[in-house]
Write a structure and sequence with these properties.
By secondary structure, the protein is mainly beta. It is built from one helix and 32 strands. The strands form eight sheets. Strands 18-19-1-24-25 form a five-stranded mixed beta sheet, with no helix packed on it. The protein is globular. The N terminus is likely disordered.
Length: 439
């Protein structure tokens, strides 16, 4: 049977109108504190981790499809989940994610089986919980934002688009219509006990630019164009349950309190970088080379917002006769989500046209925001110094209290208590973890 595959990579074009002004003084850009420990066991990738109260770490290797338990010296203690399908500790066939649960327990989300494995503080699988259907793929982090539990015990995360409710462009030559992804997404709160879902708010997501090609077997593949500067809001969950919405248009933060009250902090001073016509062409060309190199080397899946490790996607598969239909006769496409894939399984690379880039670089890319142990936002910005990005550290008032650079080839993957950060570094085709001090 011929199939039509729609593969949406979350890189899209948009426009930004932001004045290049710096009305307030900013802290000087400084270097991160010293590296205090290095993991000697290499991994295929380091996409996320969870620091436990006893100094141990759970590390998610989404390319190697393993969850590892490390001790406080970053030495391997045990393999919590791996690729051995015959055991109860199978990682699954798709990239998973770690979510902090009660105390030192952790949930490992397996989108392939639509389940969540409860990992106890000793790294043992205690039980398996059901995830909420197709939402499981949006719990793995990356460009979708880091899911987490608020103080009331509800799971907060970005919800996937509802393909049955999406506008569809007319089909041609008897082909089914193509779903047009929306330019906004919902952040929801889910009660695991009652299975009740509430929508907390919406935020802007990058526009998807679709291209249609016909495969050699006569099928049709609809692929989004890659945009190295996707423009969309970002979000993060604070320890007190507040949802921080980082706005892409003018780089300010809206704070949604658990009570439903919304407050806005002033625009964050930022050195906006203008893109000339020739600069746009050069940017697309260099991005194409970098993305092709990353795809060929398998770096898709290496942690890092907005870059190869931040690549995520939605894949919708239709049979030749059109999408499947549920009992009520409604179109029901088979929707899956991914945040990484081996190079051989990635769709063909198609870039947007240079004219589709914005006149100013966005201040950040989707999936760039993390929250430290003190409730500060760390936003990896597009502001580069000596070819390295600058992280803006922002407190709950929306004030930039620090600006930090990591050592070269490092990506921030998590935080520990007492001013500790964890970094992923790729070296000679492998990855490993490092611990450093903030100062």
């Amino acid at each position: 049977m011929k199939k039509i595959v729609i593969s949406v990579i979350v890189f899209a074009a948009g426009a930004i109108a932001a004045p290049p002004c710096l009305s307030q003084s900013l802290p000087p850009v400084r270097q991160l504190g010293p590296i205090t420990a290095v993991a000697h066991d290499s991994m295929s990738s380091v996409s996320g981790m969870r620091a436990l109260s006893n100094g141990r770490l759970l590390v998610n290797d989404i390319v190697g499809r393993r969850v590892l338990l490390l001790d406080s010296a970053l030495t391997l203690v045990s393999v919590v989940a791996d690729t051995t399908s015959a055991t109860a500790n199978a990682y699954g066939t798709r990239p998973g994610g770690l979510i902090a649960f009660h105390g030192d327990s952790t949930l490992f989300v397996d989108p392939g089986s639509l389940s969540m494995l409860l990992i106890d503080p000793n790294g043992k699988i205690a039980r398996v919980m059901a995830a909420r259907g197709q939402d499981a793929g949006f719990l793995v982090g990356g460009p979708f934002g880091a899911a987490g539990f608020d103080p009331s015990g509800k799971l907060v995360y970005r919800a996937p688009p509802n393909f049955q409710a999406l506008a569809r462009s007319p089909g041609a030559n008897g082909l089914p219509p193509v779903p047009q992804p929306p330019e906004s997404a919902a952040i929801v709160r889910f009660d695991l006990a009652s299975r009740k879902l509430d929508t907390a708010t919406f935020f802007k997501t990058p526009k998807i630019v679709m291209n249609v090609t016909r495969s050699a077997d006569g099928g049709v593949r609809v692929i989004s164009s890659m945009n190295p500067l996707p423009q969309g809001d970002d979000w993060a969950l604070l320890p007190d349950g507040t949802i921080a919405l980082v706005r892409t248009r003018d780089f300010h933060i809206d704070w949604l309190a658990p009570t439903g009250t919304v407050t806005s902090s002033p625009k964050i001073p930022f050195p906006w970088e203008r893109l000339t016509d020739s600069g746009k062409v050069a940017f697309i060309d260099s991005a194409r080379v970098a993305m092709e190199k990353a795809r060929a080397s398998g770096q898709f899946g290496f942690g890092g917002p907005g870059g190869p490790g931040g690549a995520g996607g939605i894949q919708v598969t239709f049979g030749a006769a059109g999408p499947a239909r549920d009992g009520g006769g409604a179109a029901r496409p088979n929707v899956t989500t991914t945040t990484a894939a081996p190079p051989g399984q990635l769709p063909p690379l198609q870039m947007i046209q240079p004219t589709e880039l914005p006149d100013y670089k966005p201040a950040f890319l989707p999936g760039s925001t993390r929250v430290d142990a003190d409730g500060n936002l760390w936003i990896r910005t597009t502001h580069n110094v000596d070819a390295r990005p600058v992280y803006y550290v922002i407190n709950s008032k929306g004030e930039v209290v620090d600006r930090v650079q990591l050592p070269a080839n490092r990506v921030l993957v998590g935080f520990g208590s007492g001013g500790v950060v964890y970094l992923a570094v790729r070296d000679a085709g492998t990855a490993h973890l490092e611990r450093a001090r903030v100062r």
